[in-house]
Design a protein that fits this description.
Layout lengths: L1 E6 L19 E4 L24 E9 L2 E11 L67 E2 L11 E13 L3 E17 L4 E2 L6 H6 L6 E3 L17 E3 H4 L8 E4 L2 E20 L2 E14 L25 E2 L6 E10 L14 H7 L2 E10 L23 E2 L23 E2 L21 E15 L2 E10 L6 E2 L17 E2 L3 E9 L1
Parallel strand pairs: 5-11
Antiparallel strand pairs: 1-2, 3-4, 4-6, 6-7, 7-12, 8-11, 9-10, 12-13, 13-14, 13-15, 15-16, 16-19, 17-18, 19-20, 20-23, 21-22
Length: 504
Amino acid sequence: YWDINADSPLQGQLASSAACPNCGNLKGAMRFVGTANSANGRRQTPTDLNNWAPRIGFAWNGLARTVVRGAYGILYAPSMLQAAGTSGSSGTAGFTGGSALNTTLDNGQTFVASLSNPFPNGIVKPQGAKEGPISGAATDIGGGIGDTFFVDYRNPVVQQWNLNLQREIKGEWIVQVGYLGSKGQHLPDGEGNMTYNQLPTSFWASQGTNLVANVPNPFFGKIQNPTSVYFQPTISARNLLTRFPQYGSVNGFRKPQANSIYHSFIASVEHRYRNGLAMQISFTGGKLLDDASQVVTFIGQAGSKQDFYCRKCEKSVSSQDVPSRLVSSFVYDLPIGKGRKLLGAMPKGLDMIVGGWQINGINTFQRGIPFAIGNNGNSANLGASGLRATATGINPYVGGNIGDRLTNYFNQAAFTNTPNYAFGTVGRFLPNVRQVGTHNLDFSLFKNFRPIEKVNMQFRAELYNATNTNSWSNPNNTIGNAQFGIVTAKGGNRTAQMAIKIIY
């Protein structure tokens, strides 16, 4: 594991200067568990022993046919720091080898590597804990720090609370209203890197293009990693102006450092099964805020991190936020046929055709999840993870039916590309522009009949998207793209299927 507070193995070998203000106080060294230098013994982090998880709840039915319930609890998720072999974010530096492919050392003016000879200075092999110029405490020096940097070691913790009122009314109906809340801390942050070696903004305006100019390298001859840019006599000026100038990058990824807060109102009406009918209508209105929405890259959309020095600037509506959702469902046994209210004495042959039918439906209305705007390139090379677009001050929201705004889903003039050496002003996700929502009705028709006593046959006819409602694709979200803000495709065709099910 990489110790951010430890003295670097190069500490005392260089002096601070205008070109490298932190060279006189170099921090950061690799530690190997089980060695004398390990502050955590045989562990990469301290053990989180404070997982106190109280729960409290109550139910009160002091009024006839009415119940009030409430609860509060603290819950913990499994640790994000478990061993993961050579994958995940466990940190296996010293026991794996990584050789950086540096094709150019002067920002593309000349090239030092080729396909036929990609590593002209050799490759880096696993070195282990034994101290040396590129092993032990110096492991990854001149390169990048990532999985081995355990920014936080706490187990993810979530506080949850709720209060609801439920009342039974005549005719087997149940009405419920309530509030749900949740707060997450130390949540796994898989939404891009936290860049601890980000270039301070104070250098942006003062240095400009000089940041990518080559200057004498004070680490030349001191960093022995042959694949490192620090192995050369000159280096890009921006590398020397960072907090840890002896490392190309210092990142924290998928560590427990994200936060969230959720508030919601819920309401439901339920008709318990009676006279062949069961029905439920449920509504949820809520808001989810967080500063990271993704744990792994293949689950959900991710925003772009921008300024490491301003974590609160990452807070926005979550990529998973659904502000409102209404779902209604029903099951109804038609009162026709043998043993039912109407025509219960009909002949068996007629009952096999007319009796025993059931209809079912699920109707869903849901607003879309938030929309993100993509900045079309930025060559500032600042060490920030992902610079965002800049707002022009125009409201991007465009109201009306989506079918009337396919070429103007949102106001494209509300955004512009962020220039070099600047941060964008648009949040991770827009609060008032959302992806296409859901309006869908699924409907089915069932018929049960018994050709013989011990065999039940069920005919099923099912319609998905029974109303054949269009399901529009999301518009392009990258500034400068010819289709920026334009919806170009749709789906959502009605699908029907029929089947016979035999139960014996």
